[in-house]
Amino acid sequence: MEILAYIYYIVTTVRNSLYDKGIFKIKKVDDVEVICVGNITVGGTGKTPAVQHFTKKLKEKGKKVAIVSRGYRGKRKRDPLLVSDGREIFASPEESGDEPYLHAINARVPVIVGKNRYKACFYAKKHFDIDTIILDDGFQHRKLKRNRDVVLIDATNPFGGKALLPKGTLREDLKRGLKRASEFIITKSDLASEKEVETIKKYLRRYQKNISVAKHGVSALCDLKGNMKPLFWIKGKRVLLFSGLANPLNFEKTVISLEPEYIERVDFMDHHHFKKKDFQNIEKRAEIMNADYIITTEKDLVKLPRDFNLSDTYVLKIEFTMIEDNILK
């Protein structure tokens, strides 16, 4: 692990240095403000609800917004791929990837995915009358010029153990990455203590960037058809959770805030696409523990097959809320 992490450090550091020195060229999309919402660790910082939050706020200010994403693990034949024009969805979750598909459902703006983010942004500019692009998870994608790099810091695991992949979860050298950011948002603050959040702030202040704080609170409990259910249903009940997340423990902590009597989890790999045998295992586990409810996430909901049919299964929706807003205007 140590040797692999060191090799990863050398590769990412050299690559970033070549971009910083202008040896590797950076492309700019003219007449469009590009705002990148990213992180320095692998997964789990809450980018999806954050992107949707900023999209909503920018639309309220009269901005014409599109979302561009890599479309991680999307199996598409065209690249870039139009996921949605803001009114109609043209791609499946399997083609687009789960996060872009969620953006298409919730954000109601054009959503484009592409491995080459410059081409995807240029596509958005060419085909839609936009003035702002939110780049979802593109902090390490140096080929594209952006106006702002908003870096999310997960309060429950802020700096990836201060070790690069695969030893830790850092995507690049911590100090260099934080120095390159425009501003920081400490996310999931409701899942950490005030002392822990203050410790993170203290560490980030050395970079002299704006620091905001956000929480990821429960907004709703819904059945699989989207019908709202009372959150108090969970109190005192036996609950089985299933998800394909980078950090399923945070999902569990969120459900614990609803005061169930007992919780068990069935965890899958991040971005997992569910199969019939997965649901057989979930159903068996629910029977063994005598679960009152089975709960999953909105991100996992879009990956469930249309014929999915497990009784007493619900979706927990999470809302991104700024509680200390120092975002650059």
Task: Tell me the layout of helices and strands.
Blueprint: H1 2-20, E1 33-39, H2 47-60, E2 65-69, E3 81-85, H3 93-96, H4 98-106, E4 110-113, H5 117-127, E5 132-136, E6 148-154, H6 174-180, E7 183-187, H7 194-204, E8 210-223, E9 228-229, E10 238-244, H8 248-256, E11 262-268, H9 276-289, E12 293-297, H10 298-301, E13 313-324
Parallel strand pairs: 1-5, 1-6, 2-4, 2-5, 6-7, 7-8, 10-11, 10-12, 12-13
Antiparallel strand pairs: 3-4, 8-9, 8-13
CATH topology of the largest domain: Rossmann fold
Order of helices and strands: HEHEEHHEHEEHEHEEEHEHEHE
Number of helical elements: 10
Number of structural domains:
2
**Count of distinct strands:** 13
Q: What sort of overall outline do the alpha carbons produce when their principal axes are compared?
A: globular
CATH architectural name of the largest domain: 3-Layer(aba) Sandwich
CATH superfamily of the largest domain: P-loop containing nucleotide triphosphate hydrolases
Helix and strand content put the structural class at alpha/beta
Using only C-alpha atoms, the radius of gyration works out to 20 Å
- Can you identify the CATH class of the largest domain? Alpha Beta
